């Protein structure tokens, strides 16, 4: 590993947790500091079983410049997972998305500039907007940014900040944009875990509108492997796209979950569509595969989904309380 002391912001969230766990398991010499604000989707239990000899967890905000500088000066790389990331929440209250996704990124960039530390920025395919459902096009590194929601707009803004700090101040930094992730430890407001939890809880899952919107699915472990490839081989100023080229409609995903859990897919409930709902995402990861010698391993979505369902079945204590809160929120909003 090129870097031996790494600050992982948002390391108690979904992808951050999987990154930390994988890194500690496969890279014996690496020391990790996690900085996480522990908002509703961050959970210290995700890391509780890990040895503290090479892991230090700090509860704090990426917008706290003093704390960020204190942590950054003692590491040689920062990987930023910290983000408000749920589209529905950004429509209800955009302000937290501006704070964490924009000001938080700015704070980190200023710290790595001051202490000459490498920075990797974890972003999303949603910055590119959407594609026509009927097209075969896929977004590439040079595709134009056309974000649709307050969430994706703030992530697009943070990407632009990184590029500006690379060009204007000469910091060493890379960006990656990933398609939709799935796997263990994902908070139950997201499509796949919420559907699994709803069915296990004895209710019928919901889908926005027709459910024909297409998403590009990537197992979180493959994403983590790609991020580690960036840390090992990535070149400053470059952008890397991660995708398994697995495009499925939301309705198809729900139907697969229903069938794997022995339920009738006809019981899926269609609710009013979300405002500005993107139609289709798709990324072309061919350049990243060649540049980093990275390829997704979990290419059988049904098998990956089966493993994910089994994890949620075996960890019901982990998600039950959160699922009740999410369902109460959506019931109050009438969906």
UniProtKB/TrEMBL annotation:
Residues 7-307 form the NAD(P)-binding domain. It is an enzyme of class 4 (lyase). Its EC number is 4.2.1.46. Its cofactor is NAD(+). GO terms for molecular function: dTDP-glucose 4,6-dehydratase activity. It comes from Fructobacillus americanaquae. Keywords: Lyase, NAD. SUPFAM superfamilies: NAD(P)-binding Rossmann-fold domains (SSF51735). It catalyses: dTDP-alpha-D-glucose = dTDP-4-dehydro-6-deoxy-alpha-D-glucose + H2O. The keyword Lyase applies. This is dTDP-glucose 4,6-dehydratase. Belongs to the NAD(P)-dependent epimerase/dehydratase family. dTDP-glucose dehydratase subfamily.
